[in-house]
Amino acid sequence: MPHERQQQVVRREEIIARLESRSERWDVLVIGGGATGLGTAVESASRGYRTLLFEQHDFSKGTSSRSTKLIHGGVRYLQQGNIALVTEALHERGLLKQNAPHLVQNRSFVVPSYDWWRGPFYGVGLKVYDLLAGRLGLGPSKFISRDETLGLIPNVEPDGLRGGVIYYDGQFDDSRLAVNLAQTIFDLGGTAINYMQVTDILKNNGRISGAVAADQETGREYKIGARVVVNATGIFTDMIRRMDDPGTPNMLSISQGVHIVLDKKFLPGDSAIMVPDTDDGRVLFAVPWHGRVLVGTTDTPMKTASLEPVPLGEEIEFILRHAAKYMTRDPGRSDVKSVFAGLRPLAKASRKRRTSDISRDHVVTVSPSGLVTVTGGKWTTYRKMGEDAVDHATLVAGLDVRPSITADMRVHGAAADVDQSGDLSVYGSDAAAVLDLISGEPVFCERLHPELPYRKGEVIWHVRHEMARSVEDVLARRTRALFLDAGASIEMAPAVAGLMAQELGRDKKWEEAQVAGFTRLARAYFAQ
Questions:
Q1: Smallest Cα–Cα separation from 340: which of 273, 377, 272, 292?
Q2: Which architecture, in CATH terms, is 2-63+175-250+361-408?
Q3: Which is the most buried residue in 102, 320, 414, 439, by most CB within 10 A?
Q4: Which of 148, 342, 132, 322 is nearest to 234 (CA)?
Q5: How high is the pLDDT of residue 347?
Q6: Would you call 357 exposed, middle or buried from its count of C-beta atoms within 10 A (0-12, 13-18, 19+)?
Q7: How many Å apart are CA 54 and CA 219, to the nearest integer?
Q8: In a 3-state reduction of DSSP, which class is residue 441?
Q9: What would the DSSP string read from start to end of 85-153?
């Protein structure tokens, strides 16, 4: 199984050397290190194809680290009548719970009811949700009384409360899963490199034959041959498509979703709140996550793609206003620990006027020159997206057709017996090795900040085993410090930079530049 090789050290220098020494073509070159690209590369490598993945920044830097942290079928899509998407997503939810049990857990959601007819309305809909999940369901939904509702979410607004409906969905840590998927690629014999930006597409007699990529750390350029190239770049999908064909029309609509993070006092208990009807037609969630409360999201059409989107003031106010409707303790801007924005790549659909109405179905296309593009979708269906993309890629490249095995394949770190309440639970089966490293030196046991659980030794692990290259990589995606408490993450940055500099052989100037750069980035996560 891929998670058995748990402690391999992944050195960037060795990966680059492997690139430079390789003379034959790769079977599959995947562009993009978010959920879709990582899922595609895992799928390809698991079938035994020679697989290479390039990511221009860090794994899950973009949309894939900025989700609502839910593995779910999508109640909103059930309301829209997209039964096929919900059924597929619920099936994939069940598979992911089996294949990454250290990161995916059950979460109860309560839909509070303030109108006599809404309880039965949503209750019936959620019973359909249960039926579609079949044997992979996480628990039956049911009506609950007013007292039961208040018992599960004590600070829900009591005025006019009639009761509620409780149902069950999955919750996860998105960027931690991305890291584990990158590790799984290596476990399967493939290769994945972050900070390697594709700058052009190579062609031979009008057919795509590889790509040109620039190492973002050294500036060195590489020409990589491949039998097929898969474009899995999320919000940058159209940019890569135009490298293939400058005249191709855009196939994406981009929508921004914002989340705020609050102290746990705003939602005591273990249940989440789901509000099914916000002003913009989306559902709103308030979800316990890593000792905080995550509240979101919004739906704002955007014209351009950005690696670091900025929340709009009106989006923050929208979330705070809706949260205040359902919470007895009304949050204000000063209560926000962190606020972050993500951009959704939505496959365009005719006659759809609002991005909130566009389905999260994924799309796979093949250009006349052979570029395979996979886009749309969501984290829950990442595996299925990868399966469909590789099915197309094998035909384009003329590879031996091999069946998919990922439905029953554990990802790196998968361990069902890990205590999910422990500080090291996100490492899964790697947790024992992480603990050994931390225990090796007294200084490694020290916390990086009193408000967060992360220890200094974890930074060393992130560099040696998880391909972390910058302070941002550690504080935003290997740990979730930036998303949980932006102010605390800034205070942690100097210590993290010092530990990384020692491990990577960097000088004081590098440390100072890293701290300054991260501080600038983190200030955008304040609810200003």
A1: 292
A2: 3-Layer(bba) Sandwich (3.50)
A3: 102
A4: 342
A5: 84
A6: middle
A7: 15
A8: coil
A9: HHHHHHHHHHHHHHH-TTT-EEEEEEEEE-STTHHHHHHHHHHHHHHHHGGG-----EEEEHHHHHHHS
Backbone angles phi, psi at 110, to 5 degrees: -115, 130
- The whole-angstrom separation of Cα 479 and Cα 472 is 10
H or E element in which residue 70 lies: strand 70-71
- Is the CA virtual torsion 152, 85, 188, 23 positive or negative? negative
The backbone region for 503, taken as left when phi is positive above 0, alpha when psi lies in -120 to 50, beta otherwise, is: alpha
pLDDT of residue 436: 96
Give the global pTM. 0.94
Q: Do domains 2-63+175-250+361-408 and 425-523 have the same CATH topology?
A: no
425-523 has which fold?
Helicase, Ruva Protein; domain 3 (1.10.8)
Which pLDDT does position 135 carry in this prediction? 82
> Is it true that the peptide bond before 36 is cis, omega within 30 degrees of 0?
no
- Please give the pLDDT value at position 358: 47
Sequence letter at residue 36: T
Look at residue 498 in the predicted model and tell me its pLDDT: 98
pLDDT for 5: 46
Residue 180, H or E segment = helix 174-187
Residue 130 is predicted with a pLDDT of 81
The secondary element (H helix, E strand) that includes residue 458 is: helix 456-465
Domain ranges of the chain: 2-63+175-250+361-408, 85-171+253-357, 425-523
Q: Which CATH topology does 85-171+253-357 take?
A: D-Amino Acid Oxidase; Chain A, domain 2 (3.30.9)
Q: How do strand 51-54 and strand 105-113 relate by DSSP bridges?
A: unpaired
Low-confidence ranges of the chain (pLDDT < 70): 1-9, 78-81, 116-122, 279-281, 349-360, 416-421
Dihedral, 348, 359, 180, 107 alpha carbons, nearest 10: 160
Cα 314 from Cα 258, distance rounded (Å): 10
- Write down the pLDDT at residue 350: 42
